[in-house]
Design a protein that fits this description.
This protein has helices at about 45-55, 65-70, and strands at about 1-5, 15, 35, 90. The protein has about 90 residues and is of the alpha+beta class.
Amino acid sequence: MGLKFLRDGIDSANLVSMWSLEGQPGDWNLFANEFFTHIGAATSLKTKALVKRFSAETEYVQEIGLSNMAEYDTNGKEDAAKVVPFSLTFKPNS
């Protein structure tokens, strides 16, 4: 899942989240499981190769930083009282 938050006068704040690199277990319902901004380690050969390739750019292949999202408010002004979560979990709602 990808989210984009528009802000006036500066770049948008973006994040991605997913269940895991391995896909979801046994359900075609995309929203059957929680989505995380920090996911677990790769376990299959295919996803380990993917992580190795991405690690050429960053050591944090299975995490997404959220500090840019908290740095500015919706008006593009710096937020002095910013609170930056370490990670986010999106839980499905019945």
